[in-house]
Amino acid sequence: MPKKAYLAEHLSSEELKDRYRSSQDSVETRRWHLLWKISLGWTIKNAAVAVGLDYQYSFRILKRYNELGEEGVKNLKKKSVEHRRGKEPLLKEEQLQKLKEELKKRPADGGIWTGPKVARWIEKETGREKVWNQRGWDYLKKVQIFLSKTETKT
């Protein structure tokens, strides 16, 4: 018979079950589920299989919970979502508003707005040396979707 895992008494079995059922984050839900199963006397291996986690990962969750309590169960990667990755957008919010107003009018050469025309407008507005035509097209689509939504509301 496998050795029973040590689970620090930060929370009772019933409290672990409540945390498991009330958690909004899917990663934390699995972790609470694992800990609840272990508190019921399940082995780490069997609890990990039941919850759908790897044994080593489950062992690390248990170790962190024993050391840190509830803080050890929290999903720390959730915080990294707030960090914007990649480059800054080409247009700031006020420039985007200006583009929306500009697209309501006809372009300087007449005709219709195209990706390359929007790209040239962005170059003038931002002072950038080169804005690719695709970026102009992206902004044109972005603004047209916004404009079509606002027009249907009125």
From TrEMBL:
| Protein name, UniProt field | Helix-turn-helix domain-containing protein
Q: Which Pfam families match?
A: HTH_29 (PF13551)
Q: Which organism is it from?
A: Microcystis aeruginosa BLCC-F108
